[in-house]
């Protein structure tokens, strides 16, 4: 008994990935919604995504030449940035990385990323992230925080895990 008919309309291959456009025909009315949800759930379940973990935040005063970076925790009261430090950590942890090349990345491999920024009213976003694995893609417009003080230099280092 046929429940669904799949027709491949187009196959698109690029340098790092491939896409397929197909048409689904359901033979029973009302099955389209259920079938679409099953396909969507299966694809989301098998999507390899990575999450941010172990965020370290370092700050220093740019005006003081002998100043060194020092580590702060998420409860540190920092008035030179727009958001509380805990919210900055939360914003980073909400950023999801995807394996764009569909290549196997070992589950225990440490992928380290960093952000270093300074400047008056500088908005830190995903575009500022320096990452050691170019296969991982993410939203470059993802908001992290805004530096309000021209004398503050901020460095964020975090680990990305499967």
CATH evolutionary superfamily of the largest domain: DNA-directed RNA polymerase, insert domain
Largest sheet: 7 strands, antiparallel
Q: How helix-rich are the residues, as a percent range?
A: 10-25%
CATH architecture heading of the largest domain: Beta Complex
Label the structural class: mainly beta
What would CATH call the class of the largest domain?
Mainly Beta
Function: DNA-dependent RNA polymerase catalyzes the transcription of DNA into RNA using the four ribonucleoside triphosphates as substrates.
Keywords: Chloroplast, DNA-directed RNA polymerase, Plastid, Transcription
GO molecular function, one term: protein dimerization activity
GO biological process, one term: DNA-templated transcription
Q: What can you tell me about this protein's structure?
A:
The protein has two domains: 4-45, no CATH class; 49-161, RNA Polymerase Alpha Subunit, Chain A, domain 2 (Beta Complex), CATH 2.170.120. Helices cover 15% and strands 43% of the residues. β3 and β4 (70-72) form a beta hairpin. With 162 residues, the protein is mainly beta. The longest helix has 15 residues, at 31-45.
Keywords:
single chain; 162 residues; mainly beta; RNA Polymerase Alpha Subunit, Chain A, domain 2; 2 domains; seven-stranded antiparallel β-sheet; 11 strands
């Amino acid at each position: 008994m046929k429940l669904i008919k799949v027709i491949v309309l187009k196959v698109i291959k690029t340098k790092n990935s491939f896409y397929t456009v197909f048409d689904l025909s359901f033979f029973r009315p009302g099955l389209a919604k259920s079938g679409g949800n099953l396909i969507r759930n299966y694809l989301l379940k098998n999507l390899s995504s990575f999450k941010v973990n172990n965020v370290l935040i370092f700050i220093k005063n740019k005006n003081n030449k002998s100043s060194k970076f020092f580590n702060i925790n998420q409860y540190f009261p920092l008035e030179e940035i727009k958001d509380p430090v805990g919210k900055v950590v939360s914003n980073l942890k909400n950023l999801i990385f995807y394996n764009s090349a569909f290549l196997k990345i070992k589950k225990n491999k440490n992928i380290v990323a960093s952000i270093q920024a300074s400047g008056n009213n500088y908005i830190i976003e995903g575009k500022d992230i320096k990452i050691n694995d170019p296969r991982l893609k993410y939203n470059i417009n993802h908001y992290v925080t805004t530096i309000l003080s021209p004398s503050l230099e901020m460095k964020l280092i975090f680990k990305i895990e499967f």
